[in-house]
Amino acid sequence: MTTLEPLELAEEARRAAARVRRFGAWYAAEHQIRVWRRYLGVNIASAIGTPVLYLFAFGVGLGVLVTANAGPAGVDGVSYLVFVAPALIVTAAVTIASGEFTYPVMQGFKWNPTYIGMNAAPLSARQIIDGVVLFVGLRMLTASVVYFAIMAAFGASPSPAAALTVLIATLGGLAFGTPLLAYSATLREDRGQFAVVQRVIVLPLTLFSGTIFPLAQLPWFLQWIGWLSPLWHASELGRVVSYGAERPGWLVAVHVGYLVLLAVAGWLLAVRIATRRLDA
Amino acid sequence: MSAVTEERALRRGSVRSLYAGNATAVVVRGLQATRSSNWVVVISGFVEPIFYLLSLGVGLGGFIGTVTDAAGNHIPYAAYIAPALLAVSAMNGAIYDSTWNVFFKMNFGKLYEGMLATSLGPLDVALGEILLALLRGAVYGVGFQIVMQVMGLNLAWTALLAVPAVMLIAFAFAAVGMGITSYFRSFQQMEWIPFVLLPMFLFSATFFPITVYPEPIQWLVQALPLWHAVELVRGLTTGILSPLMLVHVVYFLVLVVGGLSFTTRRLRALFLD
């Protein structure tokens, strides 16, 4: 073992600090990935099992009922399976987002305060939040790739451009998730707020968002929920790339713009809130 | 030394050592604990199945029209799906209460250790916890029934019997769920619960008749508890009754008795032996 001279030590410390300043967000993400390994078994099982089950249930099983009624022309000009598949992949990403951006955030601030620990090391609040978003983004991306492969195996993605649903789903998940992250970062006490948010906000945004049936099927007084829901905007985008659903250009632009706006605004807000909380 | 061994031997022997006849103490304690917790959480549990009913029944229903059941009856889609949602919410409620709640109380609250140190036996604790879950389930079940009635989805007077049916179903799921939870040691393992429930939720004739599957898969589905639950409740709310429904009732009675004895034995093994 070589001993370092005090000057060398100081130099080494400076270099390490510079590395953290530059790659801090990735270090924070790496931490999350290492923790994630503990859940890997159940995660892999559900990443593969969930799409298979949903595609069978909604695409195939429910498809029989829909076809019996709507005729072979199906929904939106395609079979029900093809119609529903892009929405299912986005829903999967949104489910991951609503899981990862709630309880684990509370845990990081409070129950097992790793954020506080990271912040005591030279990571800034911004880097910690960036790391969390990076990790969840990566997780959604991986799950979406698996989902897409299974979708393709079911014959539910007719055009090559359908592969873009992977990115759309991840964007949709972030648009849904970062505002939730910002909210979670404000919570200091668990009084069941997450359960309430899940039931009163996340669930309606999921159910009334034109995913397993066209939004127009809902009475007019419920349709606005779909317009607010990132899930609807992302599913519609998925349909455009997946089977070339005909949507006006301006509407496609609105979909993209709304999703990016939500994702970025939520992200920035979360950084602000975390900074105030950790630096206080 | 020998006195202790003797007492253990006695405990094993009789039901009285497992049950002090005071499950109500556990129920009352649970109600008092609920009073100090967030009521919004309890109420929001009630709106959940209603959102599902509005979305799937109204939205998807306008799309699908009617469903033809195995006997050839045409049922409006919303009326087809509503009893299934009622059965599912009974299952979910019972499973949630008997898994997550029990997991917390067992591993963090150390509540049962405290209870069993008193004169209460493991059967008191198991019964008390399950009765508590049933009480909440009954409130949700009645609420959902009222919504179904208002929406015109109860097609026969036998729908009144759906509430006791739902209680029986919830009892069975809770009794089995609590026993299984006693084996879990970490949060990560708990993630398997939704993973096991999901296929049951999707395929138990909840959203479409099982006749869309090949026959061997139909048999598999028919072995699962949720299928029996859905069929039982649907038969009652649509008024399409059949002698087969007695089989469903017996199925759940067996689960109740089996689950209770399993859970009691587990609690005894964990805390008393």
Automatic annotation (TrEMBL), chain A:
Residues 42-277 form the ABC transmembrane type-2 domain. Keywords: Antibiotic resistance, Cell membrane, Membrane, Transmembrane, Transmembrane helix, Transport. This is Transport permease protein. It holds the Pfam family ABC2_membrane. Its main location: membrane. One of its GO terms (biological process) is response to antibiotic. The keyword Ribosomal protein does not apply. GO terms for molecular function: ABC-type transporter activity. The lineage of its organism: Bacteria, Bacillati, Actinomycetota, Actinomycetes, Micrococcales. InterPro entries: ABC2_TM, ABC2_TM_bact-type, ABC_2_transport, Nod_factor_ABC_transporter. The chain crosses the membrane at residues 40-66, 78-97, 132-155, 161-184, 196-222, 250-271. It is a multi-pass membrane protein. The keyword Transport applies. Belongs to the ABC-2 integral membrane protein family. GO terms for cellular component: ATP-binding cassette (ABC) transporter complex. It is found in: Cell membrane; Membrane. It comes from the Bacteria.
TrEMBL record, chain B:
Its main location: membrane. Keywords: Antibiotic resistance, Cell membrane, Membrane, Transmembrane, Transmembrane helix, Transport. It comes from the Bacteria. GO terms for molecular function: ABC-type transporter activity. It is a multi-pass membrane protein. Coiled coil: none annotated. The keyword Nucleotide-binding does not apply. Residues 40-270 form the ABC transmembrane type-2 domain. The chain crosses the membrane at residues 39-65, 77-95, 155-180, 192-212, 240-262. It is found in: Cell membrane; Membrane. One of its GO terms (biological process) is response to antibiotic. One of its GO terms (cellular component) is ATP-binding cassette (ABC) transporter complex. PANTHER family: NODULATION PROTEIN J (PTHR43229). Belongs to the ABC-2 integral membrane protein family. This is Transport permease protein. It comes from Protaetiibacter larvae. The lineage of its organism: Bacteria, Bacillati, Actinomycetota, Actinomycetes, Micrococcales.
